[in-house]
Amino acid sequence: MNPKRKKRLIIILAIVLGSSLAVGLTLYALKQNVNLFYSTTQIANGEAPKDARIRVGGMVVKGSLKRATDSLRVEFTLTDYAKNVTVVYTGILPDLFREGQGIIAQGKLDANGVFQADEVLAKHDENYMPPEIKDSLKNKPAGVTQ
Amino acid sequence: MKIKFPLWFYQLASPKWFYDITGKLLPWFSSAALLLLTIGSVWGLMFAPPDYQQGNSFRIIYIHVPSAILAQSCYMLMAVAGAIGLIWKIKMAHIVAKSCAPIGASIAVMALATGAIWGKPTWGAWWVWDARLTAMLILFFLYLGVLALSSAFENEASGDKAAAVLALVGLVNIPIIKYSVEWWNTLHQPATFKVTQKPAMPAEMWIPLLIMVIGFYCFFAAVLMARARIETLEREKRSEWVKTVVENA
C-alpha cells in the first residue's frame, strides 16, 4: 500500500474509532436515561424518583389481575421474579395484555409504593409460534418438559 | 500488505466496465427480486400460520424485518464505499455511495412505518422513545444528512468527500441499533434470530421470511445498479464511451 493511501486509511480508522468512543462514552454516561423503564426491583429498592413520571416494566403475575366491576379500573402486580410492584390503571388495556406477559406502564409512584399508571404498553417477546403448537405444549402431561 | 483480488474486482473501478457488467446483471437481479418477493409475500401473508399471541398482525414481520435489515446493510455498504473512495480515490466507489443514500433512506422509512403499524396493535402505541426505535430514526436522519451533504457543494468531489466522512462517523450507529435491545431495557423485543441458536420461530414461519430477505437484497442490488448506472453516465458525460452509449440508445 502506498504511503499516501496508508495515511488516509489510518485517518479514516481514527475517525471511526474516535466517533465510536465519543458516542460510547456518552451512552455510558446516560445509561439510566437510555433505559426505557425501571425494573420492579429498582422501584422496590427506591432507586426510581418519586413524584416524577417514570416507566416500570415487568411480567404480570398470574392471578393478580383484578378488574373493577363498575369502571375500567384494573389492578395487577408486576414482577421481575425478584421484587413485586402493584400497578393501578384506569383505561383500555392493549390486546396483548395478559397475565404472564411482559408489559410497560407509565405513570407515577404514590406514597404507598403503588404505581399509578396512565398508560400501559404490552411488550411481546421474540418467540413466534403457530397456535396449534402452543396448544400442544399446554396439553402435554405434567412432568414432561421439552 | 499485499492482497490479490480477481481481475473483475479491479475492473469494477472503471466506469465503462461497471456500466457494461451491471447492464448484464441488472435483468437477472430484477427478475430474481420480482420472483422472490412474489413468492415470499404470498407465502408469508397467506399461507404461513398466524402467531399464537399476535394472530395475523405478526405478518407485517415479512416486510418490517427485511426492510430493517436492508436499511442497515445499505448503510454499511455506503460507508465502506465512501471509505474506499476516500482512501483509493476511486470515482466508482463515490458513485455507489451516493446511489445508496436515497435507497437506504426510503427503506429506513419503510422499516419505521411498518414498525409503527405493528406497534399500534401489539404494544398499544405507534411510537415510543425506546433505544431501538430512536437509533433507527437516527439512521434515517443520517441518510438524509449524507444526501444533503453530497449535493451541498458546487464541486462534486468535495460533496463526495464530505458525505463519505459523515457516513463513516455515522457507522457507530449500526452496532447501537443491533445491540440496543440487549444493552438497555427496551419495549422492542430482542432478536429472534441468532447465529449461535436455533431461531425462536418454526420453519414454516421463517422460510418465507428468509425468501423475503433475499428478495429485498436482490431488489436493492437492482435499484442500486440502476441508480449507479445513471449517475455514471451523468458524471462521465464528456467521455467517448458515454457518447456512444447515448447515441446507440
Structural account:
The complex is a heterodimer of chains A (146) and B (249). Helix content of chain A is 30%, strand content 29%. By secondary structure, chain A is α+β, with helices and mostly antiparallel strands. In chain A, a hairpin with a 5-residue loop joins strand 3 and strand 4 (73-79). Chain A is elongated and about 80 Å long. Chain B is mostly helical and 249 residues long. Chain B has one domain (25-43, 59-194, 201-244). Chain B has helices at 7-11, 15-47, 61-88, 91-122, 131-150, 156-170, 173-183, 203-235, 240-248. Chain B is globular and about 60 Å long. Chain A binds chain B through residues 1, 5, 8-9, 12, 15-16, 19-20, 23-24, 27, 31, 34-39, 57, 93-98, 101, 104, 119-134, and chain B through 1, 49-54, 58, 61, 83, 86-88, 121-125, 128-131, 165, 168-169, 171-173, 176, 183-187, 189-192, 200-202, 204-205.
Give the key terms.
A: 146 residues, alpha+beta, five-stranded mixed barrel, 4 helices, B: 249 residues, mainly alpha
Summarize the topology:
The complex is a heterodimer of chains A (146) and B (249).
Chain A: H1 3-29, H2 31-34, E1 38-39, H3 40-44, E2 54-60, E3 66-67, E4 73-79, E5 84-90, E6 102-109, E7 115-123, H4 131-138
Parallel strand pairs in A: 1-2, 5-7
Antiparallel strand pairs in A: 2-4, 2-6, 3-4, 4-5, 6-7
Chain B: H1 7-11, H2 15-47, H3 61-88, H4 91-122, H5 131-150, H6 156-170, H7 173-183, H8 203-235, H9 240-248
Spans of at least 5 consecutive residues with low confidence of chain B: none
Provide the residue-averaged pLDDT of chain B: 93
Total E-strand runs of chain A? 7
Q: Mind summarizing the main beta sheet of chain A?
A: 5 strands, mixed, barrel
Q: Helix and strand succession of chain A?
A: HHEHEEEEEEH
Integer average pLDDT of chain A? 85
Summarize the structure.
The complex is a heterodimer of chains A (146) and B (249). Chain A is an alpha+beta fold. Chain A has helices spanning 3-29, 31-34, 40-44, 131-138; strands at residues 38-39, 54-60, 66-67, 73-79, 84-90, 102-109, 115-123.
